[in-house]
Design goal:
Elements (H helix, E strand, L loop, with lengths): L1 E5 L6 E6 L6 H5 L7 E7 H17 L3 E7 L8 H14 L6 E6 L1 H13 L5 E6 L2 H7 L4 E6 L2 E8 L4 E5 L8 H17 L2 H15 L3 H21 L14 H10 L7 H18 L5 H13 L12 H10 L9 E7 L2 E6 L3 H7 L1
Parallel strand pairs: 2-9, 3-4, 3-5, 5-6, 6-9
Antiparallel strand pairs: 1-2, 7-8, 10-11
């Protein structure tokens, strides 16, 4: 079992990565000074697959456990679902020393974290991510939140988990589309930080797509290491952490305009990464050969790489200006200089964006 530490002073925590390790969660929870009452937040599909093993482990460790099942899908990462969670926690009388356990993908993890950050002004929570995207990205770093119809993740808080437990065996039951969406975020880490990771994915792409444990374990571990290092240096995205938003300025706008129902998060980000690489080329920041490498790898992995004609370009641009990354009416883009190195650009001329889209 691998152990990666996210160093944040008294809020530091471990990321545990292994195969078939769900059953250890109860013993890990006993190491914290939690109240006897805990709550497990999941969705119906994930709970049907892994709910029993996680619940039994927690109960065996001596905890009373409330189970809260929420609908599956990004369109349910909203204030109505959050209100339902609050109601269940209050009825069960969870207190300030209680903790929430998020079992599921990014939607479950994000909304559980935000519920934890706001319930009784903040209680603890644990992340057990079961999708590749959640394992390599959303479960690590403490970004929590819900969506608003006008923008993705516009309501939220920075609230770090006490522990992240990643069982790679859960990927065996993940549908292919969800797996590929997660792979988009792994490719992102290669572009923004680690050219060797990018090359590793290029060389081992067939094995990764075939769920070969060894390369899969490596890309998960390396992605978590990169995010842990970045978050440890810049927890609240005042500088360095912003590079994790490569592909997200356009990607979030695509999700918003399509009402969170047409694309999975990673799919929208893969389009965003390709377009933002093209933007870097238009601005003479990167070479066409680097853009070609990014687009070819994304295409090979079965991910979308261009904006369909039926999506309104004007709406995309308007949505970008509502994004939380926009400051004083100026958009912020993370643009690749080359594979493994990016820079942040502001004040992109409107005519360039129109030409790009």
């Amino acid at each position: 079992m691998e152990n990666i530490r996210v160093e944040l002073g008294d809020r530091s925590y471990d990321i545990l990565i292994g195969n078939s390790i769900l059953e250890i969660i109860g013993e890990k929870l006993k190491t914290f000074n939690f109240s006897p009452k805990l709550a497990l937040i999941s969705n119906e599909l994930v709970f049907s697959l892994y709910g029993d093993i996680v619940s039994e482990s927690i109960k065996k460790a001596g905890f009373d456990l409330l189970t809260v099942i929420i609908p599956d899908g990004e369109e349910y990462k909203n204030i109505e679902t959050l209100q339902y969670i609050y109601n269940e926690l209050l009825k069960y009388k969870l207190d300030r020393k209680s903790a929430l356990v998020a079992l599921g993908g990014g939607v479950v993890g994000d909304i559980t974290g935000f519920a934890a950050s706001t319930y009784m002004r903040g209680i603890s929570y644990i992340q057990i991510p079961t999708t590749l995207l959640a394992q390599v990205d959303s479960s690590v770093g403490g970004k929590t939140g819900i969506d608003h119809k006008l923008g993705k993740n516009m309501i939220g808080a920075f609230w770090q988990p006490k522990l992240v437990l990643i069982d790679t065996k859960t990927l065996n039951t993940l549908e292919k589309r969800q797996f590929l969406a997660g792979l988009a975020e792994v490719i992102k880490y290669g572009v923004i930080w680690d050219s060797e990771l990018f090359q590793f994915i290029e060389v081992n792409k067939e094995k990764i797509l075939g769920l070969d444990y060894n390369p899969l374990n490596y890309i998960i571990k390396r992605s978590c290491q990169i995010k842990a290092e970045i978050v440890s240096k810049d927890e609240r995205e005042t500088g360095l952490r912003a590079i994790l938003n490569y592909g997200h300025t356009i990607g979030h706008a695509i999700e918003t305009v399509t009402k969170y129902t047409r694309y999975l998060h990673g799919e929208a980000i893969s389009i965003g990464m390709c377009l933002e690489a093209e933007l870097a080329q238009l601005l003479n920041i990167t070479e066409p050969s680097e853009v070609k490498k990014i687009k070819e790898l994304i295409q090979f992995c079965g991910l979308p790489y261009c904006l369909p004609e039926d999506i309104d370009r004007t709406e995309i641009i308007s949505s970008m200006y509502l994004d939380k990354k926009a400051i004083a009416g100026k958009l912020k883009f993370v643009l690749p200089e080359k594979i493994g190195k990016v820079r942040i650009e502001r004040n992109i001329p409107g005519e360039i964006l129109k030409k790009l889209l």
